[in-house]
Design goal:
This protein is α+β, with helices and mostly antiparallel strands. About 60% of the residues lie in helices and about 5% in strands. The protein is built from 22 helices and 11 strands. Strands 6, 7, 8, 9 and 10 form a 5-stranded antiparallel beta sheet that branches. A 4-stranded antiparallel beta sheet has the order 2-3-1-4, with helices on both faces. Strands 5-11 form a two-stranded parallel ribbon. A hairpin with a 5-residue loop joins strand 8 and strand 9. Helix 1 crosses helix 9, helix 2 runs antiparallel to helix 10 and helix 16 runs parallel beside helix 18.
């Protein structure tokens, strides 16, 4: 592979104008396509194969009037102390508010709390249910603003009025995440290279790459359904890896230039060596992201494939566009030094750098370093034992938000279960008496534990499908409510009837179960494929095994940190989530496992490749670890800091999922790069010695030799020194 990439790098260098023109043309085409062909992003999601989804599909078919997948809002009214909502003045205020809500955009109907008997026992609290014509994710900002405007007169009259529900969820707003990430990346690159030009080229190539990826994904929304989170994740991952991949090739190019090579030859060797590592690092990320299809949830598959597509573009950009830009810059990437910055060759290992000193310390005391690191990561992982999964609702909204106050008012007035109603669907098409079957089902559910209210059955016009609402006594995210859903589903059914449970709470339970069931197959897939890939790269069994075990340590520590911050509320003020602690979002573990695995293998490949390169070139085991670490540590450090900065910027998002993903990824990169890859890895490599590179001969013959360390290139370009002719023998007579 190194030979082919060497030729590709030299071709891009020689045909630099053509290569730049092609990539800029793709960027222009992508932007034009995004502007003219894009359609609305898919805002809803389905969970095929679950009871909740089957119930919704049945209602859509037989009982569309129920609006099972339509958005809803709850308007909660509270009378002042000493008053009741039934007082004439308060009743008139509520009625006028409902009249304004009925004329708001996208509203299908408004249920009067007085006629629906939705008044608390003390008469002070009541709620009106607002049903929309569209799913919750399609409720427009104008419709939400109309709700806010409709309740203002009631607030002015002295009533406390708050609103919540899935239709009132706060949408993610534009933040400075991208600007912060790019800004920090620019600073790190300047410190690493000490040159504006050398720092600017990786940023320029990365921006072109993510621009192409994001614009093509946006253009594709005009032809296929793509969720709104797909572009966010693609941008987040694409920005991080694009800069990192360009950084590694730029660093190797400057190293080759400093060794005295001409620019074209330096580009060829940089792409042939560092480019090989980029290809395999990119492949591990693509495998991890594309592997999300095994989860079986369409929107997760879309997000994974979209991000994998952007990573593939980042690899192609690093192998072609960056060499072309280096061809235009030539030797100037070594100049234009910024006063006060060290710059120089970041891979230079001929003097006692911090990286060399650290590697020497670790390899001299490998057992002590290994024990301390593993114990530290194990301690960080302890909170993960308390991991609880769920989906966000108004209980984790900001403490001062109207959604959170409405949730608390309902809980105080009616009980926590009113915030998580269950929809009970009775398919009585096969029953002799559908009404009797529905009544029998309702009576059976009323007899279950943790049931507060079961509403009378409402039938569709055909009379073969009934819909009831079950109010649990416990909150929507509690174990008791989960047990209630399981009890309803396992209870005996009336003759000829089929009973299913759906609604937001049941969806949360089902998606958590589906994601939990898919985690092991997903882990097996990505670890298995990546293990084979790493065996091909490193010609070793123990190195991939060590990489996988290190990844598991990273994931455990990351889950522990996520639970401590987002579930327990530790350091909540620092991360702006005061009062928002709650169950961890169900899809977060799968996201973290996949993305962290791909990114962790990036650093494994970049760092250990240099160690193997030194080993293949003849260095003793200990020296190859120290020399390889000294060559790659500064660049890996810069790459890790850039990734941490990019992901940390997303902690500023108002979307709890994006915020938790940003925190989890930033923490995972911090742990994996500096504790696992730059501490545990050299310690284990020092302990293993030559056995680190052991591979059975039969397996060595089966695996293709990709020559990631560029040994063939080295033999090809090293001068051939002729062996001296033997001196003629002298004979004496």
């Amino acid at each position: 592979m190194a030979t082919y990439l060497y030729r590709l790098g030299r071709f891009a260098f020689r045909r630099r104008k053509l290569v730049v023109f092609i990539w800029l043309g793709l960027l222009a085409a992508g932007i034009a396509g995004a502007a003219t062909l894009s359609g609305p992003t898919a805002t809803g999601f389905s969970i095929p194969g679950t009871e909740s989804q089957r119930a919704v599909d049945l209602l859509d078919e037989r009982f569309p009037q129920a609006g099972a997948d339509a958005g809803t809002a709850r308007i909660v009214f509270e009378a002042p102390p000493g008053q009741r909502l039934s007082d004439p003045a308060n009743t008139a205020t509520v009625q006028s508010t409902l009249a304004r809500l009925a004329t708001a955009p996208q509203v299908e109907r408004v249920v009067d709390p007085f006629t629906a008997k939705a008044i608390s026992p003390d008469g002070r609290v009541g709620y009106a249910q607002v049903a929309y014509q569209v799913p919750a994710q399609e409720v427009t900002p104008e419709a939400k603003e109309a709700v806010a405007a409709a309740v203002e007169p009631a607030r002015a009259s002295g009533l406390t009025v708050e609103y919540g529900g899935d239709a009132m969820q706060i949408q993610d707003e534009q933040s400075l995440a991208e600007v912060i990430g790019i800004g920090v990346a620019a600073v790190v690159l300047l410190i690493t290279f000490g040159s504006l030009l050398a720092a600017g080229l990786p940023l320029l190539s990365a921006l072109i790459g993510i621009g192409i990826g994001a614009s093509l994904i946006t253009a594709a929304t005009g032809f296929i359904d793509i969720g709104e989170g797909t572009t966010i994740l693609a941008f987040m991952i694409g920005l991080a890896v694009s800069i990192d991949y360009a950084l590694f090739i730029m660093s190797r190019y400057r190293h080759e230039l400093s060794s005295g090579l001409e620019p074209e030859e330096a580009v060829g060797r940089a792409v042939g060596t560092a480019g090989s590592a980029v290809v395999f690092a990119g492949l591990t990320v693509v495998i991890a992201l594309a592997g999300l299809f095994v989860v079986g949830i369409p929107f997760l598959t879309e997000m994974g494939l979209g991000a994998a597509f952007t990573v593939a573009i980042a690899v192609a950009i690093a192998l072609t566009l960056l060499p072309a830009l280096l061809g235009m810059a030539g030797r100037r990437v070594l100049g234009n030094r910024i006063p006060g910055l060290r710059g120089g060759d970041p891979e230079a290992a001929d003097k006692p750098t911090t990286g060399r000193r650290w590697a020497g310390f670790v390899t001299r005391r490998p057992i002590a370093v290994l024990v301390v690191s593993v114990i530290g990561l194990g301690t960080l992982a302890i909170p993960a034992l308390d991991l609880e999964l769920g989906l966000p609702d108004d209980s984790v909204a900001a403490a001062d938000s109207t959604q959170r106050r409405a949730y608390e008012m309902l809980s105080e007035g009616f009980g926590p279960g009113f915030n998580g109603p269950l929809m009970l669907v009775v398919d009585a098409a096969g029953a002799a008496d559908p009404k009797a079957a529905a009544e029998s089902t309702a009576n059976a559910v009323r007899g279950l534990a943790d049931v507060a209210v079961v509403t009378p059955a409402a039938f569709n016009p055909a009379g073969d499908t009934a819909l009831m609402t079950v109010i649990p006594a416990s909150g929507p995210s509690t174990p008791e409510t989960k047990e209630l859903v399981e009890a309803i589903r396992s209870a005996p059914e009336a003759a000829g009837a089929e009973v299913s449970v759906t609604g937001a709470t049941a969806f949360n339970i089902d998606i958590s179960a589906k994601l939990g069931d898919a985690l092991l197959p997903y882990l097996s897939l990505i670890i298995g494929l990546a293990f084979i890939l790493l065996m091909i790269v490193f010609r070793s069994i123990l190195v991939p095994l060590k990489a996988t075990l290190g990844f598991l340590l990273t994931v455990a520590a990351t889950f522990g940190a996520v639970v401590a911050v987002f579930q327990w509320g530790w350091l909540a003020g620092l991360f702006g989530i005061e009062g928002q602690a709650g169950p961890i979002i169900s899809m977060l573990p799968v996201f973290l496992v996949g993305i962290v695995f791909g990114l962790a293998m990036d650093y494994q490949v970049f760092l250990v490749t240099r160690m193997r390169e030194e080993h293949v070139h003849g260095s003793p085991p200990g020296a190859s670890v120290v020399d390889g670490f000294a060559h790659g540590s500064r660049v890996v450090t810069a790459a890790a800091v850039i990734m941490i900065a990019v992901f940390s910027g997303f902690i500023l998002s108002s979307e709890i999922l994006v915020r938790s993903i940003g925190f989890g990824l930033a923490f995972a990169i911090l742990i994996d790069a500096f504790v696992v890859r730059m501490t545990i890895v050299p310690a284990v490599m020092a302990l293993l010695g030559r056995s680190a590179w052991w591979l059975p001969r039969w397996l060595d013959r089966l695996l293709p030799n990709v020559d990631i360390e560029g040994e063939k290139l080295r033999r090809q370009f090293e001068p051939v020194v002729p062996e001296p002719e033997p001196e003629p023998e002298l004979s004496y007579r």
